[in-house]
Amino acid sequence: MESIKKRTALSLVVIGCLLAACVSESSVGNTPQTEVNAVVDTAPPIPETQIDPNWTNRYSPDVPYYNISGSDKPAFGGADPQTALVGQVRPNDGGFVKECAINSTFCKITFGGNGQEGWVNMTDFKAGG
Fold first, then answer.
1. For residues 54 and 72, what is the distance between their CA atoms, to the nearest angstrom?
2. Percent of the chain with pLDDT over 70
3. Which residues are within 8 A (CB) of 98 and not within 5 positions of it... i.e. 6 or more apart?
4. DSSP SS3 for 103
5. Pairing of strands 64-67, 94-100
6. How far apart are CA 103 and CA 21, in angstroms?
7. pLDDT, tens digit, for every residue of 30-77?
8. Are the C-beta atoms of 118 and 89 separated by less than 8 Å?
9. DSSP H helical segments within the chain, as ranges?
């Protein structure tokens, strides 16, 4: 009975520590929290979107483009799926292309009917009218 009480007490301490986000140099993996933060802080930044000056050779700014995939497609804050998600473009929704990234299938479009903008992979979009 005594060993059950000790295990229960130890379990409660571990659970409490997990809930309180306890971290020390002697914690799991023996990696100090400062080292963990350094790894996160040194992650390479997402490259800034470079605009293709000739994107209108690929897409017309005067024709709306619609999601023809049959499922919601993500719209991002930049021409890279690692940027923030700004919305979802529903099937048959879409809008006008504003600009496109150089050497990429990503373009910034309007969508959602309220002027929302985001970068989408144009492989799922077709011109409509």
1. 28
2. 64
3. 61, 107, 108, 109, 110, 117
4. coil
5. antiparallel
6. 43
7. 545 555 455 455 656 767 889 999 999 999 999 999 999 999 999 999
8. yes
9. 2-19, 33-41
Phi, psi of 107, deg, nearest 5: -135, 155
Amino acid making up residue 52: D
Distances 34 to 14, 20, 25, 37, 65 between C-alpha atoms, Å: 21, 17, 9, 5, 48
Threshold 0.85, pTM exceeds: no
In angstroms, how far is CA 61 from the centroid of its own chain? 26
The residue length of the chain stands at 129
- Write out the two tokens for 4: 């059950």
How open is the CA angle 48-53-57, to the nearest 5 degrees?
A: 125
Strands (E), the chain: 64-67, 73-76, 85-89, 94-100, 106-111, 116-121, 125-127
CB atoms within 10 A of CB 94: 25
Find the largest Cα–Cα distance for the chain: 78
Distance CA 15, CA 10 (A): 9
